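Sample entry (173 residues):
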Amino acid sequence: MGLIHIYTGNGKGKTTCAVGLATRALGFGLKVCYASFHKRPELYGYHEIGMLAKFGATVHVFAKGHPHLDKSLDENEIRNDVANGIALLRELIADDSFDMLIMDEILISVRDGYLAESELISFIKYKPARLELVLTGRGATASVIELADYVSEIQKIAHPYDKGVTSRGGIEF
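Predicted structure, serialized as tokens:
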């Protein structure tokens, strides 16, 4: 029986939790698909994505970047990239060949209007029964949370960024 996990909140560590879970699953011999949304590994590294691939995960990167952080990005292109990503993931999981699917930052897509909440809910409801589904990102909606078996809200209490410390390789990215 595949369960649904959500890592949400304004604190650091949502992706880290998902990657840790993927590492555990891969070590156990499970087949993992990791899909990120709104990240740009070619600019920022996100070395965990490469490591997951080295460990045997299938990796996809959709909707590279976010118009909030990069004003040169076209919102309609991002919306189309998210839709295409969801369509591809539906195809990939349809044959039940994966044990786990991580949709990293997909909750940002819903929060910021690049994916309708109803589309994500449909995806969740019609996933294969044995697929473990992991969703990350800020702003999980009440309707999505209601469908989950695990919900962890990661709350920022303190963060070095607030004191002017910039992101550090191997720690924040």
